[in-house]
Design brief:
Elements (H helix, E strand, L loop, with lengths): L2 E7 L2 H9 L8 E4 L11 E4 L1 H5 L8 H7 L4 E4 L2 H16 L4 E6 L2 E7 L2 H20 L3 E6 L2 H10 L5 E3 L5 H6 L11 H9 L5 H6 L2 H8 L1 H10 L15 E12 L2 H21 L2 E12 L4 E12 L2 H12 L8 E9 L2 E2 L8
Helix pairs in contact: 10-11, 12-13
Bound molecules: magnesium ion (MG).
The site of magnesium ion has 4 residues, from strand 1.
C-alpha cells in the first residue's frame, strides 16, 4: 500500500517575512496588500498565529487589524521573494526522490511508495526539520493512503504539526466530516448532496452508488469511492515552477488603455525572456490591474496547447486586461504565465 505525504507551509507569506526579519518573531505579523507607507488602505493578505490570536484574519481591512493591535508588525506583500522561497522549498522536497506534485505556491504532495507508516513518519520529520533548519519556515504534514485524505489530515494538524491517518482508521476519520471537505466538492455539489439528505461523508459512504451516478455522472462514482476510503487520484509528477510574472507600478495613475497596453507589451516581453531562459512553455495566462484603492482585479485564460509565443501573450494579455480598465484609476499592472512545462518531450502548437 502506497502512502501520500501532503505538506502545507504555515502562514507562508508572513513566515517568509519572519525568516528574513528574525527580530519580529513572537510578535503579531501581518502581510498586507498595500505598501507600508499607505498600509491602512489595503487588506490583510496573511498573518501569523500571534496575530490570529488577536482575531486578525486574511481579507480583513488592514485598518481594522490595527484597531485590534496598534503595535502590529506590518509588511507589504513581496511575491517575488515568496516565489523564490517557494521554489527553494519545492526543490528541497524534490530532492527526497519521490514523485512530487507542486499543488500551489505553498503546498505539495509526495508519493512515498511502500515505506510503511513508520518510514513515512521518519521521512516527514526529516523534511520538517530540514525546511526549518535551511529556511526558518514552519510547515504541517499529513500522511495517508490518498492525496485527498493526506490533505485533510494536514489541515487538521496545523500549525507546525504532523498527522498520520492509517487505513484502518480512515472510515472513522471521514465519517462525521461535512461533504464539502472532499476536494472537488464545491458549494453547489454540497447543496445538491444536502438536498438528498447527505451532509456528512459517513452518509455519503452509505448512499446508493447508482443514485449518486444518476445525479453526478462519473463524479458520483468517485464521490462514493472517496467516502469509502478509496482515493484513486494519483500524485502527478508536476514539478514545475508555478508561474512567471512581471508587474510594475505606473509612473502616474491612469484610466488610459493606451498606457496600460504599452506596459502590458513591455511586461509580456520580459516574461517571455524569462520563460526562454528557463526553457519553458506556458499554457495559462493572467493579467492583473491594481487600482488606487489597492484592490485588484485578475483575469485568466487557459490555452489548449503549450506555447512560447510573445505575439499570443501580448494580444491575449491586452484583450484580457481591457475590461479591467474603466474609470477607476489604475496604479499597477501585471501579466503572468502559468501551467508551465519543460520544452523537452512536450507537444506544442504555436
Ligand atoms: Mg499554507
Amino acid at each position: 500500500m502506497t502512502l501520500v505525504l501532503f505538506i502545507d507551509m504555515d502562514y507562508f507569506y508572513a513566515a517568509c517575512e519572519e525568516a528574513r526579519h528574525p527580530e519580529v518573531k513572537g510578535k503579531p505579523v501581518v502581510v498586507g496588500t498595500a505598501p507600508p507607507n499607505d498600509k491602512l488602505r489595503g487588506v490583510v493578505q496573511t498573518c501569523n498565529y500571534e496575530a490570529r490570536k488577536l482575531g486578525i484574519h486574511s481579507a480583513m481591512p488592514t485598518s481594522q487589524a490595527f484597531k485590534l493591535d496598534k503595535n502590529l508588525v506590518y509588511f507589504g506583500d513581496d511575491y517575488k521573494y515568496y516565489g523564490e522561497m517557494s521554489e527553494k522549498v519545492m526543490a528541497l522536497l524534490k530532492a527526497y526522490g519521490h514523485r512530487t506534485e507542486v499543488v500551489s505556491i505553498d503546498e505539495a504532495a509526495l508519493d512515498l511508495g511502500e515505506m510503511g507508516y513508520d518510514g513515512a513518519r521518519g521521512q516527514a520529520e526529516a523534511i520538517k526539520k530540514e525546511i526549518m533548519a535551511k529556511f526558518g519556515l514552519p510547515c504541517t504534514i499529513g500522511i495517508s493512503t490518498g492525496k485527498i485524505y493526506a490533505k485533510m489530515m494536514c489541515d487538521e494538524s496545523k500549525p507546525n504539526g504532523l498527522g498520520i491517518i492509517e487505513e484502518k482508521d480512515l472510515k472513522a476519520f471521514l465519517k462525521g466530516k461535512d461533504v464539502i471537505r472532499i476536494l472537488g466538492v464545491g458549494k453547489k455539489t454540497a447543496d445538491r448532496l444536502n438536498a438528498m439528505g447527505i451532509d456528512t461523508i459517513g452518509k455519503l459512504a452509505k448512499a446508493d452508488p447508482n443514485v449518486l451516478i444518476d445525479n453526478f455522472g462519473i463524479f458520483g462514482k468517485e464521490l462514493y469511492q472517496l467516502a469509502n476510503g478509496i482515493d484513486t487520484s494519483r500524485v502527478e509528477d508536476k514539478y514545475t515552477i508555478l508561474s512567471i510574472g512581471r508587474e510594475r507600478t505606473l509612473q502616474k495613475e491612469t484610466t488610459d488603455m493606451k498606457v496600460v497596453e504599452s506596459m502590458i507589451k513591455e511586461l509580456a516581453k520580459e516574461a517571455i525572456e524569462e520563460l526562454n531562459r528557463q526553457h519553458l512553455w506556458f499554457k495559462g495566462i493572467s493579467v492583473k490591474a491594481k487600482y488606487t484603492d489597492f484592490t485588484d482585479k485578475i483575469k485568466n485564460k487557459q490555452f489548449n496547447n503549450y506555447t512560447d509565443s510573445l505575439d499570443l501573450l501580448t494580444t491575449e494579455g491586452v484583450k484580457l486586461i481591457r475590461p479591467l480598465i474603466t474609470d477607476r484609476a489604475v496604479r499597477k499592472v501585471g501579466i503572468r504565465v502559468s501551467s508551465l512545462a519543460k520544452r523537452e518531450g512536450q507537444k506544442k502548437l504555436s
